[in-house]
Design brief:
By secondary structure, the protein is α/β, with parallel strands linked by helices. It folds into 2 domains: about 5-245, Metallo-beta-lactamase, Chain A, CATH 3.60.15.10; about 245-325. About 45% of the residues lie in helices and about 15% in strands. The protein has helices at about 45-55, 70-75, 80-85, 95-100, 105-115, 115-125, 205-225, 240-260, 270-290, 295-325, and strands at about 5-10, 20-25, 35, 60-65, 90, 135, 140-145, 150-155, 165, 170-175, 225-230, 235. Strands 1-2-3-4-5-6 form a 6-stranded mixed sheet. Strands 7-8-9-10-11-12 form a 6-stranded mixed sheet, covered by helices on one side. The longest helix is centred in the C-terminal third of the chain and has 33 residues, at about 295-325. The termini are far apart.
Length: about 325
Amino acid sequence: MSHFVSAVDCRYIASEFAGVFVVLSDPDPARAEVALVETNTAHALPLVKERLQSLGVSPEQVRAVVVTHAHLDHAGGVGTAMKEFTNAKLYAHPRAARHLIDPSRLVASARGVYGDEVFRELYGEILPVDAARVQIVQDGETVRFGGGEWFFRHVRGHANHHFVLFDPAAQAVFTGDSFGLAYPSLQGKNRQLFVLPSSSPTDFDPAAAIESVHLIVTEAKKLGCNRACLTHFGEVSDLEGAEQQLVADLQFYQRLLLAVRQGSLPSEDAASAVRLRLDDYYRERCEREGLEWGEKEWATLDLDLKLNAQGIVWSAQKSETSEQTSRG
């Protein structure tokens, strides 16, 4: 039994920035069960339906919707998708499920960050999901799909409500944000790999992130999964190469986090100080790896470096506050 995977570019913020994966359980569309991994936002639904039509499958064949975690660029459209795909069950992490059933806190938080107008432009309407249609997936749990078996592992470091999905029949692991970002426009000539971590607020933990990267590669080898499907964006087939790059970056992030905590970076605007060091680090890395980037490539990376800097500072300040609380 072989599963077929198709990536949908959701055109979120930019082309080839965030995606949804369509999984068919059979090469014959007439016999296939269909799963969606991620939903992006409500705006992505027409693009997903268009892809289903091009593959020759109907909305009624969608039996599973999986979201790796509850961040809105991954799960903001889940309520809209579940309303459309009436035969589907939603598979979610225990910590994510409650926010998908009642998204009011997610909505309030995002509106507070972006304001109403930008929120609507980015995410559209965020609908709740009927709790009866949600299946909570525990760490290490297996789920039958289309004659094959999925295997789930909980992973920390990016978000505390994150899991990854291993699909041996597709020889793929769907990693959300736990195995980094690999934008096609940033890959070097001759298919040279470039990945970087996502340390965006508010759950970044570099030690847990490194552990998760190692876990993904180890489990992938055991299960015969030779490619990682990254929500941002597409497939990575050199798992060990990605592992090396991600661990090296995360170790640098860990040193930055410690520098913030120890006060060796300017405290008045720590995020800007961290961002400057990230810029220097990636410019040195690009030079070392022979990547020839211009303004377009650096502009692609701009948002993620900004968010990564904020996440490093947030984590440093949060851990320092927790330590002070425990001492008090």
